[in-house]
Amino acid sequence: MKSSNVPTLPHPGVALVIGAGDATGGAIARRFAREGYTACVTRRSLDKLQPLLAQIRTDGGTAHGFASDARKEDEVVALVEQIESSIAPIDVLVFNIGANAQSSVLEETARKYFKIWEMACLSGFLNGREVARRMVQRGRGTLIFTGATASLRGSANFAAFAGAKMALRALAQSMARELGPRGLHVAHVVIDGAIDTAFIRDNFPERYALKDRQGIVNPEHIADTYWMLHQQPRDAWTHEMDLRPWTEKF
User: What angle do CA 137, 7, 25 make, to 5 degrees?
Assistant: First the structure.
């Protein structure tokens, strides 16, 4: 039963997924499309989005793909304007760019450190700001930021990634405190564990072998959680939650 204090559109609007990769981002886009939302998905390469767009459409959903560099302010501004003016209002924003890169702090370069921060934090700010500017005018909307173990603690050889993810978490907290009273639900989800991706399969076969025991995170289950967050009534919003397999230490 849906609470009467959840503001809804007469018809579902747009679910914008920034960083709609082959695993988590794609699963989230498919989940919202199944619920009637128009899935607008981005990657830097439009070609890499074609399988996801085809799958959503085959399943009866509506989807649009955009080649966009989430670190570039002018591209972000243009993207949001295009969606809002020619497709539908953005009701949900999911920021899902990872930038997980390993390097010793003794060997890290300033250029790479800055690039990781741009990808995992600055782009979250740019996209969150532009979408929030539209949402506050309507007094509703959901913004979900994907975090990681590094959002909470910096592991050895992940100084750049941890710095960026912790900064993204702080951004989400600040946005929630400012925008929550204006009707926007801002959530940050810590994914604390390996996700079922080709990267884990190819680079960490021992970890991937836990899949049969539900020892790595299923992207479809992450997507279900994001949908649940969007459905929460205003009187019981979650700002931060963590997801991890039962085998993961914490």
Answer: 85
- Domain 14-243 fold: Rossmann fold (3.40.50)
Q: Among all chains, which residue has been given the structure tokens 């886009």?
A: 29
pTM (two decimals): 0.92
Task: Count the neighbouring beta carbons within 10 Å of the beta carbon of residue 156.
Answer: 9
| Pair 171, 127: CB distance under 8 Å | no
In this structure, are residues 187 and 163 in contact, taking their beta carbons and an 8 Å threshold?
Answer: no
Over the stretch 170-192, which tens digit does the pLDDT of each residue have? Answer: 999 999 999 999 999 999 999 99
Residue pair 121/164 in contact (Cβ under 8 Å)? The answer is yes
Contacts of 232 (CB under 8 A, 6+ apart): 6, 185, 238
pLDDT digits (tens, 9 = 90+) for 195-236: 888 878 888 888 889 888 999 899 999 999 999 999 999 999
First to last CA, the chain: 34
CA dihedral 136, 14, 118, 116 (to 10 degrees): 130
Q: What is the DSSP string of 221-241?
A: HHHHHHHHHHH--GGG---EE
Who contacts 23 (Cβ-Cβ below 8 Å, separation ≥6)? Answer: 195, 196, 197, 198, 219
